[in-house]
Design goal:
By secondary structure, the chain is an alpha+beta fold. It has nine helices and eleven strands.
C-alpha cells in the first residue's frame, strides 16, 4: 500500500466515523475534558513517543518505510502537543496520527494528523468561525510563519484575498479573516477549503481546512489535516539519489537546485506581476541548510 493511498484510506475511514457518530448534548459538554493528551516529537524521539503510546506497534513495508499510528474515536478524541521548541503547537479533536519514517536513521520524518475543527461533529457557522479564529491564534502565538518553496513566486500579503480567488493557499497566516470574509471565501471556493504552508525550527507544516458537510439545520462539519515534515526530509527528497551522495556532492546538488529554482521563480513572478499581483521583495528564505546538511 502506497503512502498516499494509505493516507486517503485513513481520511475515508475517519469521514465515516464522523458521519456515524453524533454525540449527545451531555457528551458535547465534556468532549474537551475527555480528550486524552499526548506529546509527539519529530525525529528519533518521535519513535520513542509512538512506542510509549501504541505499545510499539509498527507497520513495516519492504521498501524500508515504516508507519506508526494513533487512533481516537468520538466522543473521546485526542489532544496532541507537537513539540518543536518555542514553536510547539497544540491540536485538539484529533481522530488519527500517522507517523512515517522513510529512513531508519532519521526517526519520524512526517506526522499526518486528521482532526475536527470544532468539538462537535456539526456546528453553526458562527461556532465554526470562532474555532477557526482560535486555531489561527494558536498558530501565530506559536511563531509559525508563511513559507514559500524556493521555486514559488513570493506573492505579497496585500494580495492575500485576491490570491485566494485562483488558489486555495493563504499567504498571510497572521491575518485572521472577518466572519464575512470567512463565509465568502469558503462558499466561493470550489473545494470549500483553505490551505496554509508554514515553517518553524526545521519543520514544514501544511494545513488543510475543509468543509465536508452541511446538515438540514444549516450546521457545518469541517475536517483539518496537519502534515508536519522535517525540512531535512523535504529537501533531500527533492534531490534525486541524495542518499547515495557524499556530503560534498550533496552540498553542490543543493546549491545547484537553489539556482535553478530561483530562475524558475523569477519567471513565475514576472507572470504574476503581469496579472496585477505584487511581489514580496522582502521575503527571506529561512536558512534550512543547518538542518539539511
Amino acid at each position: 500500500m502506497t503512502v498516499k493511498f494509505r493516507q486517503y484510506f485513513l481520511i475515508f475511514i475517519f469521514g465515516l466515523l464522523l458521519s456515524a457518530c453524533q454525540p449527545t448534548e451531555k457528551h458535547d459538554e465534556n468532549l474537551t475534558l475527555n480528550q486524552p493528551s499526548y506529546t509527539l516529537h519529530m525525529g528519533e524521539k518521535g519513535i520513542q513517543d509512538f512506542s510509549k503510546y501504541s505499545d510499539g506497534n509498527v507497520d513495516n513495508h519492504p521498501a524500508g518505510v515504516s508507519f506508526r499510528e494513533l487512533q481516537f474515536s468520538p466522543p473521546n478524541l485526542g489532544k496532541l502537543t507537537i513539540e518543536n521548541g518555542s514553536n510547539t503547537l497544540s491540536i485538539e479533536h484529533v481522530f488519527s496520527v500517522l507517523g512515517t519514517q522513510y529512513d531508519k536513521n532519521e526517526g519520524i520524518q512526517v506526522l499526518d494528523i486528521d482532526a475536527g475543527l470544532t468539538k462537535e461533529e456539526f456546528a453553526t457557522p458562527e461556532q465554526v468561525y470562532q474555532s477557526y479564529v482560535a486555531l489561527m491564534k494558536r498558530i501565530n502565538q506559536a511563531g509559525w510563519k508563511n513559507y514559500f518553496f524556493t521555486d514559488a513566486p513570493r506573492i505579497a500579503k496585500e494580495d492575500n484575498i485576491k490570491h485566494l480567488s485562483k488558489s486555495r493557499d493563504v499567504i498571510d497566516p497572521s491575518y485572521i479573516f472577518s466572519f464575512e470574509e470567512w463565509k465568502n471565501i469558503i462558499n466561493n471556493s470550489p473545494t470549500k477549503s483553505l490551505g496554509y504552508r508554514l515553517y518553524a525550527n526545521g519543520v514544514i507544516l501544511d494545513i488543510s481546512l475543509k468543509r465536508t458537510a452541511k446538515n438540514e439545520r444549516n450546521e457545518e462539519q469541517y475536517m483539518l489535516r496537519f502534515s508536519f515534515q522535517s525540512v531535512r526530509y523535504n529537501e533531500r527528497d527533492s534531490i534525486p539519489d541524495s542518499d547515495k551522495m557524499t556530503p560534498s556532492e550533496f552540498e553542490q546538488a543543493f546549491k545547484k537546485r537553489l539556482i535553478k529554482n530561483k530562475k524558475y521563480r523569477e519567471k513565475e513572478e514576472r507572470k504574476a506581476k503581469a496579472e496585477g499581483y505584487h511581489i514580496d521583495e522582502e521575503y527571506i528564505d529561512p536558512d534550512v541548510w543547518p538542518y539539511v546538511k
